[in-house]
Design goal:
This protein has helices spanning 25-33, 89-94, 115-124, 126-152, 155-170, 189-196, 200-212, 228-235; strands spanning 35-40, 45-47, 55-61, 64-69, 75-81, 86-87, 101-104, 108-114, 184-186, 216-219, 222-225. With 237 residues, the chain is of the alpha+beta class. It has 2 domains: 9-145, Jelly Rolls, CATH 2.60.120; 153-235, Winged helix-like DNA-binding domain superfamily/Winged helix DNA-binding domain (Arc Repressor Mutant, subunit A, Orthogonal Bundle), CATH 1.10.10.10. Helix 5 (155-170) packs across helix 6, helix 5 crosses helix 8 (228-235) and helix 6 (189-196) packs across helix 7 (200-212). The two termini are 34 Å apart. 30% of the residues are buried. The chain binds a DNA duplex (20 and 20 nucleotides) through residues 154-156, 188-190, 198-202, 204-205, 207-208, 220-221.
Length: 237
DNA sequence: ATGTTAGCGTGCCTGCCCAC
DNA sequence: GTGGGCAGGCACGCTAACAT
């Protein structure tokens, strides 16, 4: 279980994965004195759709899901946020309200930087703006891929695709670059269904099929991928 | 130790889409 | 029009985790 830690930005492990990696010591001190670190327990909401952003959030440790509610009140998970990634950047830059809910998937520590301080830093470092543009482009690419997948793939294919995606999310940092190594995915079936865009029962049935086909193993709530190549084939990747 | 709750798994039924 | 496949929804039972 994650513990609350409030490091100086100079010592922040997550910073090397963020757009703030190029900041010099003086500016790190400035960032450090203008950030507020908050510890959230699993399942807590960081911000709600409709709220006006007053700054940005940077995830220090833990995992966060960004989700939207459909017309019928059904949740759709649109993205995961990992340590070092920024949260709420699109709404802040677009000067719009948040369009999604941010909820912790596990105990997490989040740093909040008010928008004045954030824009002061980005104005001084054009490279950060470049990094943000790159990040937003990547998010757009992912959204387009997801849209295509939802429109053209069957639930079975989408589930395989998302299991492979989650495998990367849940990999420990030290084996992150290993293609074949698998992780234990610990996510409620309901959340999995909300990512795939289907019903919980359908996910349970398909997971059971995958298990019988020896593509995965299930230990309680843990899902472990056994046949990465097989899942790739099903997902048509 | 016991009761409660949340999550998981399964069966059954229904609706939609497509091929014939 | 009909049958088959796919997917969703509802109901129910089981189990593990949690609270008292």
């Amino acid at each position: 279980m994650a513990k609350f830690i409030d490091p100086f930005c100079t010592k922040c492990e997550a910073r090397k994965d963020s757009c703030f990696y190029m900041l010099q010591n003086g500016d790190l001190d400035f960032l450090n004195s203008n950030k507020v670190s908050t510890f959230y327990k699993k399942g807590q909401t960081i911000f709600y759709a409709g709220r006006t952003p007053t700054g940005i959030y940077c995830l220090l440790n833990g995992k966060i899901k960004l989700s939207k509610l459909g017309f019928d009140g059904k949740e759709q998970i649109v993205r995961f946020v990992l340590p070092g990634q920024l949260l709420g950047i699109r709404a802040l830059i677009a000067k719009r309200s948040y369009t999604a809910f941010a909820t912790t998937l596990e105990d997490s520590t989040v740093c909040f930087i008010d928008k004045e301080s954030f824009f002061k830093i980005t104005n001084k470092y054009p490279a950060i703006t470049g990094c943000l543009l790159s990040t937003l482009s990547q998010l757009l690419q992912e959204a387009e891929d997801k849209m295509t997948s939802m429109a053209q793939k069957h639930v079975r294919e989408r589930l395989a695709e998302n299991l492979l995606f989650l495998n990367n999310i849940y990999k420990p940092v030290d084996i992150k670059n290993s293609v074949e190594t698998t992780a234990s995915i610990i996510l409620p079936r309901e959340d999995l269904a909300n990512i795939v865009g289907t019903a919980t029962e359908t996910v349970i049935r398909l997971l059971s099929d995958f298990k019988n086909e020896k593509l995965i193993s299930i230990e309680g709530r843990k899902i472990i991928l056994k046949d990465i190549a097989g899942l790739h084939k099903i997902a048509r990747l």
